[in-house]
Amino acid sequence: MTNPNHTDTSRSGDLVERLRSVDISWSETGEWCAEAADLIEALEAEVKRLRKLTCATWFYMPDEGDRCWFSPHEVIDEMYDPEPGNHVFEVECATSLPSIWCAVRVTDDPDADERFTFTEHDTEAEACAALGEKQ
User: Fold this and answer.
1) The pLDDT of residue 5
2) Contacts of 127 (CB under 8 A, 6+ apart)
3) E-only strand ranges, 1-135
4) 49 by DSSP, 3-state: which?
5) In a shared domain, residues 47 and 75
6) Are 34 and 21 a contacting pair, CB within 8 Å?
7) Does residue 49 sit in the same domain as residue 72?
8) Backbone angles phi, psi at 101, to 5 degrees
9) Which of 30, 92, 119, 132 is paired with 55 by a 20 to 30 Å CA distance?
10) Is residue 5 part of a domain?
11) Residue 67 — pLDDT band, cuts 50, 70, 90?
């Protein structure tokens, strides 16, 4: 999982779709498939609810807890102010959640819509790998 507040449901959505496509009229297996699909959907809803309870609302640069921001994007932009190129930055959360490691690509193209883009990762190694770098 890349972002602690994001759940990739594409794989489970495919599974639910396949389970629901089993014909329940001809066997007990079809009923089990329908029950399994219901359970998967219920569990995904519960995960989504629980994630909201642990969602960080303040973010900051390590050792700069007195200067909080509303998003990792703001921390990168305002605190790190990165030069063009690829970077890995740690952004801490003002909750008991672990730090977010951001793989950041900064452009020097003045016509670009965004000065930088980034992805969130659980570890520094994952962020480096996302940039194609060895740690």
Assistant:
1) 43
2) 88, 101, 102, 103, 119, 121
3) 59-60, 85-93, 100-106, 116-121
4) helix
5) no
6) no
7) no
8) -105, 125
9) 132
10) no
11) confident
Pair 65, 125 in one domain: yes
Q: Give residue 98's domain range.
A: 59-130
Tokens of 47: 């995960």
Q: What is the pLDDT of residue 4?
A: 42
- Paired with 104 in beta bridges are 87, 118
> Is 104 found in the same domain as 78?
yes
DSSP letter assigned to residue 76: I
Distances (CA, A) of 38 to 1, 10, 20, 51, 52: 23, 16, 9, 20, 22
The number of residues making up the chain comes to 135
Indicate the residue among 35, 53, 71 that finishes a domain. 53
- Record the pTM: 0.60
Structure tokens at 10: 């594409």
Looking at residue 135, its pLDDT comes to 54
Is the pLDDT reported for residue 52 higher than 80? no
Mean residue pLDDT of the chain comes to 83
Distance CA 43, CA 95 (A): 24
